[in-house]
Amino acid sequence: MTKEQGWIFLRLLVVSAVTIGGIWLTGILFSLTYPFIIAAVLVWMFHPLIRFLRNALKFPNVLAVFFTVFLGLSAVIGSVTGIIFLIIFGFRRISAFLPEWIQTTAIQAQDFFNQSIFPIWKQLTGAVDTLTPEQQATLQNGIEQLGAQLAEGSTDFGQGIAEGLTSIIIFVPSFLIVFLFVFIAFYFIGKDWERMLQSVYDNTPAFILKKGRAFKTMFQYRVLGFVRAQIILMFIASVIVFTGLMILRVENALAIAMIVGIAEILPYLGSGTILIPWFIYMLITGELYMGIGLAIVYGVTIAIRQSIEPKILSSSMNLNALAVLISLFIGFQLFGIVGLFVGPFVLVILVIFKDIGFMGEIGRFIRYGFKDEPHPRISGFK
């Protein structure tokens, strides 16, 4: 290894250590201050409205911030209430048909037992009678062990459900406390937003401000463009499903289509979260017309989405599909279900760093340090 290669390796280690340390420190700081970070992001998003109320409608600054907080809180509560209403409405619709479904399923299960399971059971019991006492005792012990394992599994499953419900009960008060801090922090940060922002500008080096503005532009282009693309895809899926359900004469087609559209936000599952179990159940219960119709609706929804999604997403994010898939898997492995959103978000941040030239500057520092990058010699010139 030459001296230059040694310096390159050392600078690579320094960059890696700084990156890992920065991620670790950011994680700790975020865990301690995330209500205020969320409040600052919300103020940044709603600040145009605050400025409009203050400049165009001549609201006092405090009143403009308070009105924006009230409007945002109303929007959040209204959205959550609407989603809960749709979920409750869906469950009520399901519960209306549930007794009939249970009765039909029970009859089919009984027919299946009488026609398939019971003859096999008779053959097995006849075979057991031919076994020796030792063999019957061994078989009995095996059955008892299987029953004990099933009981243990059922107990673990019940304990898991109880622990999950306990976690939810504990989470609700914590969520309300965090929401209260976000609400209060939004007011105080929004009231002094310009002064705080000017203080940041005055104490930040010019080159960092330049990168920050470039990052803000690309963040709006990619992330907000992604949100816009998802809303468009959700709306298109809702229209397709609503049209199909109307053709199939399904009651409350509009509400069901809206729920399916909301489900489109789930990565790679989308409308299939609702439509696939629905049409499978219809096919199992003998409702062939409805089952095939729902399968066709799902197929048309997927086909149209797959045909228009690349164009919509490419115009808003311009991300490689394989990179998105890898980020989803890594995020899921590290953070579970939440990682399905964290992984792509981190990928977007890395791509933005590349777009604004930050990754290129890191690469040049690793290769050449603080020296200028050498220009290639052109033949014919000294």
Automatic annotation (TrEMBL):
<feature type="transmembrane region" description="Helical">
    <location>
        <begin position="168"/>
        <end position="189"/>
    </location>
</feature>
<protein>
    <recommendedName>
        <fullName>Sporulation integral membrane protein YtvI</fullName>
    </recommendedName>
</protein>
<feature type="transmembrane region" description="Helical">
    <location>
        <begin position="7"/>
        <end position="26"/>
    </location>
</feature>
<keyword id="KW-1133">Transmembrane helix</keyword>
<keyword id="KW-0472">Membrane</keyword>
<comment type="similarity">
    <text>Belongs to the autoinducer-2 exporter (AI-2E) (TC 2.A.86) family.</text>
</comment>
<feature type="transmembrane region" description="Helical">
    <location>
        <begin position="223"/>
        <end position="248"/>
    </location>
</feature>
<dbReference type="InterPro" id="IPR002549">
    <property type="entry name" value="AI-2E-like"/>
</dbReference>
<dbReference type="Pfam" id="PF01594">
    <property type="entry name" value="AI-2E_transport"/>
</dbReference>
<dbReference type="GO" id="GO:0055085">
    <property type="term" value="P:transmembrane transport"/>
</dbReference>
<feature type="transmembrane region" description="Helical">
    <location>
        <begin position="254"/>
        <end position="281"/>
    </location>
</feature>
<feature type="transmembrane region" description="Helical">
    <location>
        <begin position="62"/>
        <end position="91"/>
    </location>
</feature>
<feature type="transmembrane region" description="Helical">
    <location>
        <begin position="288"/>
        <end position="308"/>
    </location>
</feature>
<feature type="transmembrane region" description="Helical">
    <location>
        <begin position="320"/>
        <end position="353"/>
    </location>
</feature>
<dbReference type="InterPro" id="IPR014227">
    <property type="entry name" value="YtvI-like"/>
</dbReference>
<keyword id="KW-0812">Transmembrane</keyword>
<feature type="transmembrane region" description="Helical">
    <location>
        <begin position="32"/>
        <end position="50"/>
    </location>
</feature>
<dbReference type="GO" id="GO:0016020">
    <property type="term" value="C:membrane"/>
</dbReference>
